[in-house]
Amino acid sequence: MVVRTGLSRTLSLETGINQITRRYDYRIVNDTAGYDNGSSVRFVGYEIPLLMLVYIRLGENTWMNNALGVSLDMYPSDVVSTLEQGRFYMYRKSWIQGGAVANIGVEYRSYKSGYFYLGATYHRPFTEMAITEFTWSTPTMLPYSVRSALNGSYLTLDLRYFFHESPDKVRLRKDRGVN
User: Is this structure's pTM higher than 0.85?
Assistant: First the structure.
């Protein structure tokens, strides 16, 4: 969900709440022990971004925008996946973190049907999102553990639709002095 509010003809403020599901595949291969196993896990997070948008008019109904801002990222739980001879454990560094967000896109503004948007977003957390740990053992071997950090950065392709707001309502609010 995204909400925009116009500050001027060329500046807007954007916020909302996003659910982000990251999928990770892992595979452990040990040729000497004849072990080859893997699985996949999902790591769910929520983000509340706050972006400042700058618009550049390209045509009568076409606008380009660039945005930069911050995001409050929340991770509700850790992830555990068990295998025949091992365990994959992904634990969050903190349940709440910050991140930087940058966005670029183009929108077509139909004043009767709403706004159609195509763009890309880059999200970069300020710290590592999670630590992964894989523990592997056999009946004849002591447990062996490998750790790695995940930063959680991503790049997305965004397709959005913004609902039409009646120009009469905007005009009435301006006449009353309400934004």
Answer: no
